[in-house]
Amino acid sequence: MSSEVGATGESNDQPSFRYNALAAQDIELKWQKRWDKEGTFWAANVSGDLVDGKGKHAGKQSPYFVIDMFPYPSGKGLHVGHPLGYIATDVVSRYHRMKGENVMHALGFDAFGLPAEQFAVQTGQHPRVTTEANIKNMRRQLHRMGLSFDDRRSFATIDPDYMRWTQWIFSKIYDAWYDPDFKRKDGGVGSARPIQELIDCFKSGKRSIPGHHKGTWDSMSAEEQADVLNEFRLAYISKSPVNWAPGLGTVLANEEVTAEGRSERGNFPVFQKELKQWSMRITAYGHRLIEDLDTIDWPDKVKMMQKNWIGESHGASVHFAVSTTDGAKDMEVYTTRPDTLFGATFTVVSPEHDLLEFVPSDWPEGTKDSWKGGFDTPTEAVKEYRHVAESKTAKDRVDDQGEKTGVFTGLYATNPITGAKLPIFTADYVLMDYGTGAIMAVPGGDQRDYDFATKYGLPVIYTVAPLPESKDDLSNYEGTAPFVSHDGVVINSSVEHTHIGGAPLDINGLRVDDAVQKVIAWLEDEGIGAGTVSYRLRDWLFSRQRYWGEPFPIVYDDDEVPYLLPDSMLPVNLPEVPDYSPKTFDPEDADSSPEAPLSRNDDWVYVTLDLGDGPKRYHRDTNTMPNWAGSCWYYMRYADPKNAEHLVAPEEYDYWLGPEHNATAGKSGGVDLYVGGVEHAVLHLLYARFWHKVLYDLGYVSSSEPFHKLFNQGYIQAYAYTDERGQYVPAAEVEEVPGSGENGAEPKFTWNGEPAFREFGKMGKSLKNIVTPDDMYEDYGADTFRLYEMSMGPLSESRPWNIRNVVGSMRFLQRLWRNVVNEDTGELAVTENSADTKTLKVLNRTIADVTVEMENMRPNTAISKLIVLNNHLTTLESVPRAAVEPLVLMLSPIAPHIAEELWSRLGHAESLAHADWPRADENYLGVETVTAVVQVKGKVRGKLEVAPDIDPAELEKLALALPGVVERLGGKPPRKVIVKAPKIVSVVPAN
Predict the structure, then answer these.
(1) How many whole angstroms separate alpha carbon 666 and alpha carbon 728?
(2) N or C: which end of the chain has fewer CB within 10 A?
(3) Which residue spans within 613-688 are E strands per DSSP?
(4) CB–CB of 640/652 below 8 Å?
(5) Tens of pLDDT, residues 790-832
(6) H-run or E-run covering 272
């Protein structure tokens, strides 16, 4: 007998062969070592070096590819909230292996990014050293968890051979343009095509050269050619307003700026600034990114988030003529309501709009003082207004709560239908990178325009009236508000002679949708507009003034003409630099400009290369790619991680990710199961889909989508406690006051005998409520940890961590152990006798139900059903092998180490990782059952399917074993249990 006291609360003098924390650790380390040695979780490729543990290739085995979202290796290591998704995917992986599928389950590391660089700035330690140490620690923590990864396939984005392929993908995107008329192999229209095809069209004259209609391609300078192609390339150099964070010293994508106009990382102020940056033409794929959502199995919530972010809208582009001292200029406006052209009374352009270069030197005669902004001339007014606008973020500028400001530019635009002269204002609520940077304002149909018109004394014309059957009337709005409904009857919208063309145009009496189509047809007939699709989505800003990121495979000559490096020169590795930090500024210094760390290394920046025209001196791009780059494509590299000739070999891609690669993949193909947080619904997932579609169009991959099925796991949250001063105290040392939570009252707590106050939220070191996986391994073992996390509730929901309830999971494993192993002797305790009919009914019902739960990723309810079966077996005088072996197999995806140990003790030489999943015998299904409702303090906390003649004592035992009941009892015996077999069990907690 041993005399230790374990973390499970077991008393002294335990039996020698009891399953406890120490035994669990021995068992777990033993099986992890064996799995590693035998390659138990190796996934077999079609060909090459990646074979399974038996040395075989995939053959005709059906593939199943399951992964978690790319983790960043934090220096803080994991806490128990992090592994929820990893354990879930491991459960799914193990289940599918037992179904006979060739399962690929792998994990790499998204290792570029700000945290390691910021640490380097503070300490001087190279980011690679920090990052690799963090990866090593995270690998250790995850391996100890018993996750069934094929570690041969692991990598990090900072590995040179991986970075090489990230740069290679960038080069293919750079060397491509989007041809909206190209017919794809899948029957769709519009595709990325090699830029050389566009050049050939320019050379042959098949396509006119924008801005060079009279010249030939070969007569143009290299600089002129580069400028033309830059307007078509999918990766291009933009000079446009960007989000500049002086406090970080870098620019940010729109998605990295909070709703409050601050940086997502560091919470620094963000300003609009015009800079030369790399951008990706993701907007070319806007419609396909929406349309193809119908081909994949994603949560509706995430699909809607992507659709809303892309923001596809249908309308028309309209050209207004603008008279200037430099001649007539064109102002293009995008509108979703071209029918309201008759109601346009002014126009507004962004402060960055090109038209503002042509404002007159004097105010036009009759200009209202309220339009001038207090300035003597339009040039002064516009100059000052532009300066003020630069200090605002995009969010500030379009905020509906903010007051709309603007100044008259002294310019007028001519309405192409009515011929009316519309004053042009500049206002910061119009953004240059949305639409065309110019709007026509219709105050009779838009609240924002109405407010602006009211403020500046501009006319209001109503062009839509309520439908007769609506029992509403336009008189309810005139003079007080716009009528903004899309559904109405058009009024005040006819002319006998249009300004352009001269023919009459009358849309009065039409419904809005019909009027829109009639006006679009007129615009197209007269050549001054066209039906157009617009997107809220902006092109992806792809430059960062950072050190710790992938360098661009681009060099420039003395004329700043960019040149793509050949594949043979990849990867472009990062040099050593004297200082890792970008130059940062006062967070409020909007006039500052970026200075990247790489610019301080002349030996790396300036290079002599032979790019086909003999040795020449070039300079490198000193920006780096954002951390999103490496995470855009990593999933496909798992399939072929060491391939030096291909991103991934075509046959391996088709096997693991191609269309119809298994029974559920569908025509879109992609990863079979992708698990991660919903916070990545827009950024990562949208960017990855975009890159994937470019590679698909160019023929490098065969499926149209990267991730077929997406599952968003919830989060594990935790209680934190403060003392009377508001200071956080160690959560593990807080005690609940006995009896304080009775009758629905909030329980009270103490710490060191003094009052403590509970709050609920996330885990954090500063909150003193961190529990690490290492703590759990030591105190309970990995299997208990895994079992508890999977039993806490539905995977898609967040749930509170309560260390007091972990003991319930340990006790279940101990009961299972006792059903197989004699605690005193260590001998096998099962019998070879046949199971009785009642046991066979319970067993086969459990097999059928657990199979359904596992198929639908509901391990919490699967565990409940396994507990019922195990508790039934404990009531038998002897446990039949035929009943306990299927139980061990069904538990193994969730608690694999103890399952392997029991399977071995039951006489099996092979690992159960590839054993057949149990099948239910139909002869024992369909038996009559009753649903028993289990309540705690009057609230339903679980349900059980039981026999109508179940013994009340058995029903009580099953009810008390339910995870929902165990959690609410907090490890304490109930004060009272009222059993009304077979339908109701009421539990009254001790406090």
Answers:
(1) 51
(2) N
(3) 615-620, 673-676
(4) yes
(5) 999 999 998 888 888 899 999 999 999 999 999 999 999 999 9
(6) strand 271-280
